[in-house]
Amino acid sequence: MSTDEPTADDVTPDEVSGEETTVAQSDEPVLSVEDVKVHYKPGGIVKRALTDKKVRAVDGVSFDLYENDIVVLVGESGCGKTTLGKTAVGLEKPTEGTVSYRGQDIWEAKENPREAETEFTEIRRAMQIIHQDPANALNSSRRVKAILSDPLKKWRTELGPKEREDTIYRYLEYVDMMPPEDYAERYPHQLSGGEKQRVALGRALLMNPDVILADEAISALDVSLRVGMMDLILDLQETFDTSYVFISHDLANARYLAKRAGGRIAIMYLGEIVEIGPPEEILRNPTHPYTKVLKWSTPTVDPNLARERIQEDPPVREVDVPDPEDPPSGCKFHTRCPEAREVCTREEPGLYDTAGESDAACFRALETHEYWNSDELAGPDDEYGAESESGFGD
Ligand code: SF4
């Protein structure tokens, strides 16, 4: 990592740098998520049997991921980003809609293999996941060498023991674990959190995947290590031609990843993508009022801005997130949205082109929508009806 790259503290919506990657993205998507819904009954067996209610964890989401692309899913806890990520890589079956790998419906490949052009086992290999907590993902009773041997024994059967060992050492070098002969003999408890996450990244790359789902993969690391891990992921993206669905609650990290990789940020709220676009557009010129809320709640290193924010109320009508079992009618954000008007309580917005480069699920993106003649909603308590303490962020 060069010395002029940003520290974690620099990576804020106000200030970001870092060289953009130069690998071209493909014309055809490697992964297509089309109108995907994941609904399930909440609670345990008894509650599920007694209720007709459903949690709409993901509620009509579409996006494409191209080769060498990154889409960072950002939102508050419980917004559905992890469920969407798992559904996108075939770990969870959608209730409705399709997920396709290079044009092949993943679930058709699994359930109707005779009709499929791509085998499900090949799709499984091509889609890997890095979890938030590598300690749970790595078998504590096995050495790093044994952990990394498993995918090679399964997918690279042509390799003999010596070639397998050489490959493991090479991948440990890729993830900056030097000397590899030393790290290969260690158990997970002999590694730091950052080193465990590097082993998890190396294991995922050993499968030569097309897509990696990184589920809060840097959240458990010390702040001082996060930029280094993000840089390693981005450098190896160029080496391995891999695409990422990255899940983060942190808009600053999302911006860093998406900006360097020429990717997009997708803002999620109550199971829907409410805005998607290039990081600079999302951060500097957000269209959706919820994107503005996330930006407002992201820590800043600018002392003046930080001071201003302490004195401001959060830009919402209500701080509390609605019950996902009983979401609001119309636009799901209308109970919290400071711009909400009467039409927002009964009509659901689609994802519209904005004047900038993003798409946003807000009537305000449409110059001629009836929204502009609709009655404003009265605030619950005061101008915004907001409480004084912010409930945002994790
Ligand atoms: S559609 Fe209405 S309630 Fe929804 S985000 Fe836009 S202004 Fe707010």
Automatic annotation (TrEMBL):
GO biological process: transmembrane transport
SUPFAM superfamilies assigned: P-loop containing nucleoside triphosphate hydrolases
Keyword flag ATP-binding: yes
Biased composition regions of type Acidic residues, renumbered to the chain: 1-18
One Pfam entry name: oligo_HPY
Gene Ontology MF annotations: ATP binding
Superkingdom classification of source: Archaea
ABC transporter domain sequence ranges: 31-295
Region (Disordered): 1-28, 312-332, 372-394
InterPro entries membership: AAA+_ATPase (IPR003593), ABC_transp_ATP-bind (IPR050319), ABC_transporter-like_ATP-bd (IPR003439), ABC_transporter-like_CS (IPR017871), Oligopep_ABC_C (IPR013563), P-loop_NTPase (IPR027417)
UniProt keyword list: ATP-binding, Nucleotide-binding, Transport
Record keyword Lyase present: no
Family of the protein in this entry: Belongs to the ABC transporter superfamily.
Family annotation (PANTHER family): D,D-DIPEPTIDE TRANSPORT ATP-BINDING PROTEIN DDPF-RELATED, TRANSPORT ATP-BINDING PROTEIN
Protein name as catalogued: Oligopeptide/dipeptide ABC transporter ATP-binding protein
